[in-house]
Design brief:
With 255 residues, the chain is of the alpha/beta class. The protein is 38% helix and 23% strand. It contains 10 helices and 10 strands. The protein has a 6-stranded mixed sheet with strand order 6-7-8-3-9-10, with helices on both faces. The longest helix is centred in the last third of the chain and has 16 residues.
Length: 255
């Protein structure tokens, strides 16, 4: 299957700081790309570039061969890109359903009628396990439900590319396992998922391939197993104990 989204030599500099420095990668349908690396490695900035939230200093972005370099977020949304944010950005004074309905009104296949958008919202809420919280205000939700809401809003856009930025931070094992199952089911529908996460076990459990960023550059890429045993990655990020635990579990469960 041909690549859908291609980043070619993508860079983003802030003054003298090279937050993203010459990154090339492709996103394929029905795959999960895990994106890991130390704090400040450039993971969020790379997602920002690939969703139009930041403009690259250099490099190109192609979606289905169409040049979207420097395009605005709504152009990326129209091309099928949806994302969650490391610092969640729900409309806190709206209800859960109203938040998710906004997702159905934008994106690659926006609903024209509000009733249709609401129906799509209800289906997504059902899928993420929030159907019984549809009328709750976001401010009333526990953190695990807010993360599911973020995911639901992105799914309501019917994305072809789904970027998840630290969706699991601070969640308990049971909540993590539920979200991992959802990510797998989204991938199985043909979506290209980019999964940025410090919960490395979860990344290894769900990713087809893993890219390790360090100081804006790709330090390593490979299968989860290759990355878990890569000496450079162990030195820069994982540490030796993690690699040993990965081996003992034989790849293992997400949490
Ligand atoms: N708007 C900005 N202006 C200046 N510097 C920035 C800006 N955004 C990010 N940076 C810097 O770019 C580098 C990469 O940041 P980024 O947030 O992409 O890292 P990250 O890999 O997502 O880190 P974390 O794991 O902590 O979320 C950091 O040094 C950060 O301080
Ligand atoms: Mg980040």
């Amino acid at each position: 299957m041909s690549a859908l989204l291609e980043a070619d030599g993508l860079s983003r500099h802030f003054g003298g700081l090279k937050a993203v420095d010459g990154v090339s990668l492709t996103l394929d349908p029905g795959t999960v790309l895990g994106l890991i690396g130390p704090n400040g490695a450039g993971k969020t900035t790379l997602l920002n570039l690939m969703s139009g939230c930041e403009r690259p200093s250099a490099g190109r972005l192609l979606v289905d061969g169409r040049d979207l370099t420097g395009a605005r977020p709504w152009a990326f949304a129209g091309a099928g890109v949806a994302r969650t944010f490391q610092i969640g950005k729900p409309f806190r004074r709206l209800t859960v359903a109203d938040n998710v309905t906004t997702g159905a009104l934008y994106g690659a296949e926006p609903e024209r009628r509000r009733s249709a958008a609401r129906a799509r919202c209800d289906a997504v809420l059902d899928r993420v396990g929030l159907a019984d919280r549809a009328d709750a205000r976001v401010a009333e939700l526990p953190v695990a439900a807010v993360r599911r809401l973020e995911l639901a809003r992105a799914l309501a856009q019917r994305p072809r590319f789904l970027f998840l930025d630290e969706l699991l931070a601070g969640l308990r094992a049971a909540d993590i396992a539920g979200i991992i199952d959802l990510i797998r089911s989204v991938r199985d529908e043909g979506v290209a998922v980019v999964f940025v996460e410090h919960v490395v076990r979860a990344v290894f459990a769900v990713s087809d391939s893993v890219v390790v960023l360090d100081q804006g550059r790709i330090l390593a890429r490979g299968t989860p197993d290759e990355i878990a045993h890569d000496e450079r990655v162990i030195g820069a990020y994982l540490g030796r104990r993690h690699a040993e635990r990965h081996q003992a579990r034989g790849g293992g469960e997400p949490c």
